[in-house]
Design a protein that fits this description.
Low-confidence stretches: none
Oligomer: single chain
Mean pLDDT: 87
Radius of gyration: 17 Å
Number of strands: 10
Number of domains: 3
Shape: globular
Structural class: alpha+beta
Strand content: 5-15%
Number of helices: 10
């Protein structure tokens, strides 16, 4: 499936064309701007946002989203103000797993490629989402037909060149930018990050398992932080 115009994306999401353009400029939808100024949206990014529903209210910042996932994973975020910490705790107490998944989605943008060697590319990434699904739910199996992960180091452009990746809206490699290394556990992201990324999946079973896992982490956090 080819990239779609902002008018079509607006219809799919139930928002205005101007809002779609704003999401693209803010990096909250993945796409590209042509020389004539026209924006195109990648189908995966559009599908992810649609599957998690419409967002209302103020967007969560990337840093606070990572910090919230850190709280669920038991990781202490350094250099965070008390007001930010209080806001994150309030969000965990009041938001459902689906609301959390929807709001933290924009902390990282996905980019899709075709790989020359899936196994080589997989070894060079911090795995998440469907590439680490079994860590979220033992009844799920890793999808060996694709690779999903974060960069270990360097820039996306360097990685694409080194791995001989080709941009492809239907590709088998999904790379997320802006990773918080505090969430790295060996070859994998933390469980909360894996679940949040798996919640982007168009596969109903994977998405359901991801939301269950996030809710279980939220409930454990509530027990630990309720006096």
């Amino acid at each position: 499936m080819h990239s779609v115009m902002t008018r079509e994306a607006a219809t799919v999401l139930g928002v205005s064309q101007r809002q779609v353009t704003g999401l693209l400029r803010a990096g909250k939808l993945d796409g590209e701007q042509l020389r004539d100024g026209t924006w195109l949206v990648t189908p995966r990014s559009l599908s992810e946002r649609k599957s998690l529903g419409a967002r209302s209210g103020r967007s969560w910042s990337s840093s606070s989203s990572w910090a919230l996932l850190g709280e669920l994973s038991g990781l202490a975020a350094a250099g965070m103000s008390q007001s930010t910490r209080d806001r994150i705790k309030r969000r965990i107490r009041t938001c459902s797993a689906e609301e959390i998944a929807r709001n933290v989605m924009t902390r990282a943008t996905s980019h899709q490629f075709t790989a020359d060697s899936l196994s080589t590319t997989a070894r060079s990434l911090i795995l998440t989402g469907s590439s680490a699904a079994e860590l979220v739910d033992s009844n799920l199996t890793k999808d060996l037909r694709k690779v999903e992960g974060y960069l270990r180091s360097g820039t996306l452009e360097e990685f694409v060149r080194q791995q001989l990746l080709t941009p492809d809206d239907e590709g088998d490699v999904i790379i997320y930018d802006r990773f918080d290394m505090q969430h790295r556990s060996g070859d994998y992201a933390s469980k909360a990050v894996i679940a949040a990324d798996l919640a982007r999946s168009a596969n109903t079973r994977e998405r359901s398992a991801a939301l269950v896992a996030l809710e279980e982490m939220r409930q454990r956090w509530l027990v630990q932080h309720t006096k």
